[in-house]
Design goal:
- The complex is a heterodimer of chains A (about 280) and B (about 300).
- With about 280 residues, chain A is mainly α.
- Chain A has helices at about 1-10, 15-45, 45-55, 55-90, 95-100, 105-110, 110-120, 130, 145-170, 170-180, 185-215, 215-220, 230-240, 245-280.
- Chain A is about 80% helix and about 0% strand.
- The longest helix of chain A is centred in the N-terminal third of the chain and has 34 residues, at about 55-90.
- Chain B is mainly alpha-helical and about 300 residues long.
- Chain B is built from 15 helices and no strands.
- In chain B, helix 5 packs parallel to helix 10 (about 180-190).
- The longest helix of chain B is centred in the N-terminal third of the chain and has 34 residues, at about 80-110.
- Chain B is globular.
- The two termini of chain B are about 15 Å apart.
- The chains are: A mainly alpha (about 280), B mainly alpha (about 300).
- At the A-B interface, helix 1, helix 2, helix 4, helix 5 and helix 6 of A face helix 1, helix 3, helix 5, helix 6 and helix 7 of B.
Chain lengths: ~280, ~300
């Protein structure tokens, strides 16, 4: 109802010019113009120069590592995130509210703190590392450590995207499935999973997007060996410190293009999820 | 959390309230799992949270106190640490109000009016979340750095932006840009414009309507956004690291101070400063959970950031 009222009487409410003008000014000055600067700088390289930087083995290795580790972390979260969401929505256990609040820790904990804490845990003499080292598993200062950091940083994205969908999922559908003779496993895989899938994919993409650009929590545990455990954001910083502005902007623009593409995918997924649930709501 | 339970309780509308977690639901094997499945799943979920979230948190405090309480406090009152704490507080004190004003203005324009390109504008406001923090720092170096567009001019006039406090503030504004706006937009959208229209038609001025009608309606959402914005502003590392220049005692924020101490192998001092940031995170989570519990119906708990 409000949509109709609003569009008919929108002129009653003051401040349109002021607020929209301020919004556009602030957005342009602080976000859009600076971001455009990256592409202007990178364009200064010319197509050939740009390709030369982006296709150099060290840059390619860093991009591959950043995207690969982020993908692996997001995949782990895509399995455990919905499981955690399920447990918190459907089951009762002591301390539930407390545990639920802590799921957001990766949002609230500064990334540098997460980074040094994870390193302390997974280093060869750390709490967890000391048990893994004898088994021949090295986590800190290897790509495996980067995956751990990416998992840490991405977990809440998946849980918090799936949780509301599970809450809204109607139990009647499950009862209907059961009354029609489906066993619990069939109900879970045929009724609940399809409901949750768009949200889980959205969460996966959000976690992936966040982990690709992540710096603080990854940098301490990564080891930062060129070609092995050097992530793309670090390479940007290294190039800046060498005053190779062109190289830094080339890597940055490659990352920006890839994350914008991801953003489009996420928007598409969310639209799909909304359509999926339009009939439920 | 309360939003969650409330939603589950309210959603199956055909059940009277006394059946909310009632025995019928519980014992119906067709719509729940066998006890051992429930326990296993709960155990797996909690173990995962324990390993990935709790252990790092505990590690921060244990490592911070490794060399005793006096070493812990010595690391916090040391001049460089104090300077870092001051700079972090200053940065947040500038960043949060600026993004607050922007967030309210953007939400007002987007939710109270219809105009073309609105969904594009919303996407653009969200843009900083999908940009790597390192790139967020880089973009200001490209403008204000010595080789940047405005760099030479600024240097002539003795204004320092890159490798100084203004640069740190700019980078922090960028990474915390969407927090308050994205909390307010869905909330104010849901509330519509009826109250404002009523106030205006009764003769209130625009500002009176805003302060007396809109602000009381959105206060908890505002507080929620400020809370998240502040946590990120105080904890931002990547963006600030690129643009700060790491000058001890001058352009070091707390997260950067943690990094320097850590790289100098002063582990317990690094974890001591880190523990302050971890405390900030815990306070943020506590307040956030409290707001969701007490004022969940006045927040739009989209809960993704």
């Amino acid at each position: 109802m409000s949509a109709i009222v609003r569009s008919r009487t929108r002129t009653v409410i003051p401040g349109f010019g002021l607020t929209l003008g301020y919004t556009l000014l602030y957005l342009s000055l602080l976000v859009l113009i600076p971001l455009a600067g990256v592409f202007v700088h990178a364009a200064g390289l010319g197509a050939e120069g740009y390709w030369h930087v982006v296709s150099s083995p060290r840059v390619l290795a860093a991009l591959k590592l950043s995207f690969g580790a982020a993908l692996a972390g997001a995949a782990i979260n895509a399995v455990f995130g919905p499981l955690i969401a399920w447990v918190f929505v459907r089951y009762e256990f002591p301390g539930k509210r407390f545990f639920d609040a802590v799921i957001d820790l990766p949002f609230a904990l500064p990334t540098a703190v997460a980074g040094i804490a994870l390193t302390a845990l997974y280093a060869g003499n750390g709490w967890i590392g000391q048990y893994l080292e004898p088994l021949g598993i090295k986590v800190a200062y290897t790509p495996l450590g980067i995956i751990i950091a990416c998992t840490f940083i991405g977990l809440p994205f998946v849980v918090r995207t799936v949780q509301p969908v599970l809450q809204d999922a109607e139990k009647e559908l499950e009862e209907a499935a059961a009354s029609l003779g489906a066993n619990r496993w069939q109900t879970v895989t045929r009724v609940i999973l399809p409901t949750v899938l768009p949200a889980a994919l959205t969460g996966f993409a959000l976690a992936f997007a966040r982990a690709v650009g992540e710096y603080g929590s990854v940098i301490f545990i990564a080891g930062n060996l060129p070609m092995v455990s050097e992530i793309a954001p670090l390479l940007i910083i290294i190039k800046l410190e060498e005053f190779d502005y062109a190289g830094a902007t080339a890597v940055a623009s490659a990352m920006l293009i890839l994350s914008f593409a991801l953003l489009l995918v996420i928007n598409g997924l969310q639209a799909w999820a909304r359509r999926r649930h339009a009939h439920v709501r | 959390m309360s939003t969650i339970t409330d939603a589950t309780l309210q959603d199956p509308p055909r059940l009277p309230p006394e059946f909310k977690q009632g025995p019928l639901m519980r014992r119906n094997a067709a719509v729940t799992e066998a006890p051992w499945v429930r326990w296993t799943l709960t155990a797996v979920a909690l173990l995962f949270l324990l390993g990935f979230l709790f252990l790092p948190l505990i590690a921060v405090f244990v490592e911070a106190l490794r060399n005793g309480v006096s070493a812990y406090f010595a690391a916090l009152v040391e001049p460089d640490a104090l300077a870092a704490i001051r700079l972090t507080l200053l940065t947040a004190a500038i960043t949060v109000p600026l993004n607050l004003v922007f967030g309210v203005a953007a939400a007002w324009a987007i939710t109270k009016f219809e105009f073309r390109g609105k969904s594009l504008l919303i996407s653009l406001i969200d843009l900083p979340f999908s940009v790597s923090p390192v790139v967020a720092g880089l973009i200001y170096i490209l403008i204000f750095g010595a080789q940047g567009w405005a760099g030479p001019w600024l240097m002539e006039h003795g204004i320092k932006v890159a490798f100084a406090v203004p640069g740190i503030v700019l980078a922090t504004i960028f990474v915390t840009f969407p927090f308050i706006a994205r909390e307010l937009i869905p909330l104010m959208h849901e509330q519509g414009t009826e109250y404002e229209q009523a106030a205006l038609s009764l003769g209130a001025s625009g500002w009176q309507t805003f302060w007396r009608v809109t602000v009381p309606n959105i206060r908890w959402g505002l507080l929620y956004g400020v809370l998240l914005c502040n946590a990120r502003a105080m904890g931002e590392f990547g963006a600030v690291s690129v643009i700060s220049g790491h000058i001890r005692g001058q352009t070091n924020t707390m997260p950067l101070h943690v990094e320097i101490l850590y790289n100098e192998y002063q582990f317990s001092a690094a974890f001591a400063v880190a523990s302050l940031l971890a405390l900030l995170a815990l306070v943020t989570l506590g307040l956030k959970a409290y707001l969701e519990w007490r004022h969940g119906d006045e927040l739009v708990a989209t809960r993704r950031h």
